[in-house]
Amino acid sequence: MKWIVGLGNPGPAYEKTRHNVGFMALDALAERHGMKFNQNKCKAVIAEGTIAGVKTVLIKPMTFMNLSGEAVRAYMDYYKVSLEDMIVVYDDLDTAVGKIRLRYQGSAGGHNGIKSIIQHTGTQIFNRVRMGISRPEPGYAIVDYVLSTFPKKEREELQSMIDETCAALEFSLEHTFERTMAKFNK
Fold this sequence. Notes:
Structural class: alpha/beta
Strand content: 15-25%
Largest sheet: 7 strands, mixed
Distance between the termini: 28 Å
Helix content: 25-40%
Shape: globular
CATH topology: Rossmann fold
Number of strands: 7
Number of helices: 6
Radius of gyration: 15 Å
């Protein structure tokens, strides 16, 4: 079994914001495979199904971004799952809009959702797909930027990035994460 955690903030006010690209990617993946987010447990909404012959669980923490690790820990403890089988999908300021970057370890890099997961799991070693949202112009507050929506001129790149993220996640279910990184880190 593999479990994929998409980071974001719950509620319609945050739905299309830059900080919610992790949720957007999981919604797209669920739609591609006929999965429904119809379970509410472990401080998250959950969809279960089979992708590429692999039982796959999609998890969207409902704790708000800064407490994402609470949902990850609750799921780990309840289902006794391994971090080796987890992939976290989230927004990244240091990656250009439309690009993705895969890693299997590293610091939080200032991302509070990742910081929370590291705090609650006790490790920086877990698979990640970082989805680019670029940095704001100088003088633009980071918090306002990540909670803003994508302007029309970036929406095509956003959709392309979501499609690429889904392809990487699907590939990772049949291959090692190292091989997935080699294929999708361009």
